[in-house]
Specification:
The protein is α+β, with helices and mostly antiparallel strands and 364 residues long. 41% of the residues lie in helices and 29% in strands. Strands 1, 2, 3, 4, 5, 6, 7, 8, 9, 10, 11, 12 and 13 form a 13-stranded mixed β-sheet that branches. A two-stranded antiparallel ribbon has the order 14-15. The longest helix has 80 residues, at 202-281.
Length: 364
């Protein structure tokens, strides 16, 4: 996995061109073993070995590379060159005094003025494979080796920073904390991680604190999203309750409609019952307040004077009533009183009396 890192040196040799540009010649990297602090507070020692730094691959990568004002937080490419580039390195990369040197020309007026004002630190941004490989170089032990080093850009950074800029390292997130001199000690900042205090480069501390701020921002964003989701859920629940209430109201209205229909049906049945039974019970029968069963029992009593409905089921009463009505429909009769039945109509009754008298007159 290739990682991006930054090395650092100083501008000691510079000159102005007739056009007003500034040309400088600087060492941009050297072999050595350097400590890199990781996010978890541990430190790993990584080696820049001469056969890697002084390889054709690395030396060629120093040629014609963008010069930037501070390190951008992304590698410089064709797509963002116009945004970050303030000049360009030359093609004279070479080894001198066990260091890799290259010349470069700064073409940005503001950056040139910053150099004149004292901003003269050089920090290269480069990509490399960090390989787990233990060993020693010049008596210093290391755990990893930087291989396939390719320089991406050369940054001019503020003077006085102890160590390089924060490295962009994908998932490893480490930073070089080398000092400006050979093996010297830089002033370290202190930071507490999970209750344990560590000494780290000030740039490392600043980056960790920025990560903490980012984490807090993420937590705030997460809370906002959670709150928004809760609010949305609340509105959904309210709409669901409203829907349930509406459905309940519709059901009640439907029930009322059914009740009205049933009432109409019962009224119709009552009218039919009264119109059917009134000829049998006579005009003197008072239907007011009488139940359907009481009316049916009265009809049955016209046909069976000693009828008592006590203890009889509704099914029994209904069957007896239906049979009585059927008999009336077949034979025909009317009532002139509560328990008086005369079969046939009035004319038929007169004929029957006449015939009875005639039979009496025939007696000797």
């Amino acid at each position: 996995m290739k990682l991006q890192r930054y090395d650092r040196s100083l501008i000691n040799d510079y000159a102005e061109t007739p056009e007003g540009y500034l040309t400088v010649r600087v060492p941009i990297t050297r072999p050595g073993v350097f400590p890199y602090a990781r996010q978890d507070g541990t430190v790993q020692m990584e080696a820049k070995l001469p056969d890697e730094i002084f390889s054709d691959r690395t030396m060629y990568s120093a040629r014609s590379k963008p010069v930037t004002d501070e390190h951008p937080n992304v590698p410089v490419t064709l797509d963002n060159y116009q945004t970050y580039a303030k000049g360009m390195s030359h093609t004279d990369a070479h080894v001198e005094d066990l260091k890799l040197y290259v010349s470069m020309t700064i073409t940005d007026k503001d950056l040139i003025q910053k150099v004149y004002d004292g901003k003269r630190d050089i920090s290269i941004g480069f990509m490399s494979d960090v390989v787990a490989e233990a060993g020693t170089y010049n008596g210093q032990a290391y755990e990893y080796v930087q291989r396939n080093i390719e320089i991406n850009h050369i940054a001019i950074v503020d003077q006085g920073r102890a160590g390089p800029e924060v490295a962009i390292r994908s998932d490893s997130d480490a930073w070089q904390i080398d000092s400006t001199d050979e093996g010297g000690k830089s002033e370290m900042a202190k930071i507490k991680i999970k209750g344990t205090e560590y000494e780290v480069d000030p740039a490392v501390k600043a980056h960790i604190e920025s990560l903490t701020t980012s984490t807090e921002d993420e937590e705030q964003d997460k809370k906002k999203k959670t709150d928004a989701l809760d609010a949305l859920q609340g509105r959904f629940d309210a709409l669901e309750v409203k829907l349930q209430n509406t459905e309940r109201e519709l059901a009640n209205e439907k029930a009322k409609q059914v009740s009205a229909d049933e009432l109409d049906k019962k009224v119709e049945q009552r009218v039919t019952l009264i119109s059917t039974t009134k000829p049998l019970l006579g005009d003197s029968f008072d239907f007011t307040g009488k139940t359907e069963r009481e009316i049916k029992e009265a009809v049955i009593a016209t046909a069976k004077q000693d009828f008592k409905g006590d203890g009889k089921s509704d099914d029994y009463i209904n069957a007896f009533f239906d049979a009585t009505i059927e008999q009336v429909a077949t034979q025909g009769f009317s009532s002139t009183g509560a328990n008086s039945i005369i079969t046939g109509d009035a004319s038929q009754s007169t004929d029957v009396n006449t015939m009875r008298m005639q039979r009496l007159n025939m007696r000797p």
